[in-house]
Structures are given as C-alpha cells and as structure tokens.
Sequence to fold (482 residues):
Amino acid sequence: MAYEHFLRGGAFIGGQWSQAEDRTEFPVVNPATGEEIARVANCGRQETAQAIGAAVRAQREWSALPAKKRAGVLRAWHDLLIANQEPLARLLTAEQGKPLAEARGEIAYGASYIEWFAEEAKRINGDVIPAPSGDKRAICLKQPVGVVACITPWNFPNAMLARKIAPALAAGCAVVCKPANETPLSAFALAALAEDAGVPAGVISVLCGRTEEIGRELTSSKSVRKLTFTGSTAVGKKLMSDCAGSVKRMSMELGGNAPFIVFDDADIDAAVTGLMASKFRNAGQTCVCANRILVQDGVYDEFSSKLVRAVQNLKVGDGMEDGVGVGPLISEKAVEKVSGLIEDACEKGAKVLYAGASASGPCFVNPTVLEDVSADMRVFTDEIFGPVAPLARFATEDEAIRIANDTDYGLASYVYTRDMARIWRIGESLEYGMVGVNEGIISNEAAPFGGVKESGFGREGSKYGLDDYLELKYMCIGGIDK
Ligand code: NAP
Fold:
C-alpha cells in the first residue's frame, strides 16, 4: 500500500475528521525535496476546547471498560501498525526526512510501546495495606488521572506520541494530542489506525495549527488533569508554569547534552560503532544523541582516525534513496542553528577534522567532526541537533566525570570501558537518567526512559511508565470489628 493512503488533511476531533472553524490550513513539507505533501487544518482555541469536551465524555466509558478489553484494543492497534509498517515508514520519511530504514525502525519501536502497555494494562494492581488498628482495613486503588494532553516534537513523529498515548489508554485515560506542526501526518495515521482498532470516538483527538492558542487552552483547562510533554527544555519550562494555575500532573521529556566517554581500555571499534549509531541516527536530531565526545589521551588518535573513516562512509541524501545514512535536517532554520554552532566553535579554536560532502538542498548539513573543543564553545553547552561530532581529550576518570556532569541537562550518557569496577563507579557518578555502557542505542519499551535535572521528570516505557497516568486513592474501611 502506498503511503498516500494515510495522508489526512484536517484534524481528528471527537472521532471526526474535521476542518478548522475558520477553514484555514497550513502546508506540511518534505524537508528533503521542499515539496508540499499535504495541507492540515490550522486549529486553535475553539477546536482544542471541542477535543477536550469529547475526551471528557469518552473518558468515562473508556475507563469503565475492563482492563482486559482495553488491552485487547491496544493489542489490535499494535497489530495494525505492524501490518502497515511500510506505508507508515514512507509517510514518516516523507514528512520528517530520516532514512527509510530508520523510519521502519521507528514504527516498530512506537508499536512496541503499544504492545507493552497492552500487557501492562492488565496489571494495574492496587494494595491491601495492614492497618494499624484491628477495626479498620486500608486499601489503595489505582485510578486513571483523567484527560491527558500530549504535546510531542517532530524528531520521532510516531514513537514520541505512541509512547504517551499507549500508557494513557492502558490506564483508562482519554487524550488530546498536539503533534509538532512540521510532522502531523504520522500522528494522524496513528489516530486513524487506532479508530480501526476499536478505540472509541473522543478517546484520542489529534490537532495542530496555532500552537500557542492550543497550548494555552490545554494548559489552562481544568478538565485536562495531566500534561505529558516531549520537546525542548525552554518550551517545557513555559508549559510547566502555564500548568501551575490548574495544578496539573506533568511529565517532561526535555532536551539533552549527552557525554560519550571513551577510556583507554575500551574496545575502540565498538566505541566508534556505538558513536556512529548514537550521533548520526536521525541526522543527529535525537534527544539522546552523543553531544560531547570525551576521549582519553591514550586512545585519542586511534579513536579519532577510525571515527573519521566511518564518517567518510556516510551517504547524505533523501531518506527515500537506498543506502542513505543521513537525511536532511527538519528545516532551514535548523541548518542555520547547526552552522552557527560550527562557526562559533571554529572562532574559539576548534579544528575541523573532517567535513563530508552534503547532498544538494537547503536542509542538508555535512557530517562534520570537530576537535580541540572546549567548554566555552556552544557545541559543548547547547544541544547540537545536527550531524556534528565534537571531540575533546581528557586525562583521568575524575576529569571525565567532572566534564560530563558540567551541564544543566541530564538525559542520556554513554561510557566505553572494559573495567568492571570503573563501570560501577562511573555509572553511579553520572548525573543522568540513563547510562549506556559499551552500547550506543539504549532505548526500548521495557526500560524506563527519562531524564533528571533540566532534562525533565517522569519515565516512559517499563513497569514504571504507567505510574505517570495513575492516581493513588486510599480507602479506609472502618467498623470491621463486631
Ligand atoms: P519544541 O520546540 O519544544 O516543540 C515541541 C512541541 O511543543 C511541538 O509540538 C511544538 O509545536 C510544541 N510547542 C511549542 N511551543 C508551545 C507552546 N507555547 N504551547 C504548546 N505547545 C508548544 O521542540 P522541538 O524542536 O519540536 O523538538 C526538539 C526537542 O525535543 C529537543 O530539545 C529534544 O531534545 C527534545 N526531545 C526530547 C525527548 C525526550 O524524551 N527527552 C525526545 C525527543 C525530543 P510546534 O511544532 O507547532 O512549534
């Protein structure tokens, strides 16, 4: 089936595909070619209020369904995603730009969270607590938090949303989703398949358009009881303050600045392979991308020359073409930002060790390796979000830990070493939510994904992932003694 089957304009509100009240639309553009792929309803306050109203109504029946029934619907949704993996992947590459092989991987990855939470839905167990006095019994129930607003970025248009909707629905919540305006089509496809799988009208709504208006309505509504956000730390902070007025539950999956530390005793070939996967996947546009590559003096020359050879083999181009390993960045604005970071580093003394050939088009950036990078450069302090690998040397373990933790972020970190004692020491010392040891790809549905410090709070996936969508209710039953 061609991906055009999944092209939807409009917005999906309360089980209906609809237009914005004022009939305005905006284009979705393929970043590799500049072609317009679709036009989407330019929604705002009014449509968001409709979606919230539909979610409030749908939530009651959805949460009243037996967990096994909700699990069955989620499982059917998962199966439809897998059955349609190829057209969904092509749609994703068309709107986002990543290589098709990665897009296929993202569809499977997003679906794995739906499968996982279909299984977890049946295990939302409460507790019976031994009461301190004999005439009472104490019980703890777990109940859905209520209507959830989900706001997601463009870098994983399928998986970031699947990772939120799946636990919300498993817990018995209804959702109103605002995907990124650059990549709404994969979100609409998810909603269309959810409808086919039997998710009742109103349980999932998806709309985008006038971002600030939608955000204000979602954050100020007293009917929305939780906001789950994945995106930049700056927008996350604004949304946190906007949610304060209605004291909402929140989960924040924000930006990162991952250190990638290679010790003298590491398997250097494995470290280069791990770095290539962590750094250049999605053209460097992932929140867990290696951002600062710290290499110990004794292996610096070997590591940097092997890295340059690997980067030379990267083919840059339209993600639909065979063999392409690096697609375009999401927009020209993103290219300007990344080019600015390279210029800033070079002005302050960094050297370009390698700058590969780029494909033609305004959204492409050459894969680049920089060396002699230092903490006063923006490539070191900012999230790069592009195919740029900055290298710096270190001498001791303490120095590596100090540099690695010298950031406001705390999402992913990576370390390559064969010393087991060091693995423990450094694993415990890194101020990060996730540590990859001798591994560059760490995320999967069974593990808790999330950050500390200004990378946010809350965890997605794993046995902990449902907690963010559940309230604990304590019931004290008295008068038990006769
Ligand atoms: P972004 O600019 O923060 O946008 C994320 C989402 O928030 C988009 O849907 C955006 O809508 C929306 N948004 C922006 N301003 C808003 C407002 N005032 N009210 C309501 N919604 C608002 O981030 P991005 O550039 O799309 O994504 C890249 C960032 O996401 C990076 O920092 C990356 O590290 C982070 N990220 C984190 C994780 C994680 O799990 N920790 C995973 C992936 C990405 P528009 O598209 O309409 O602007």
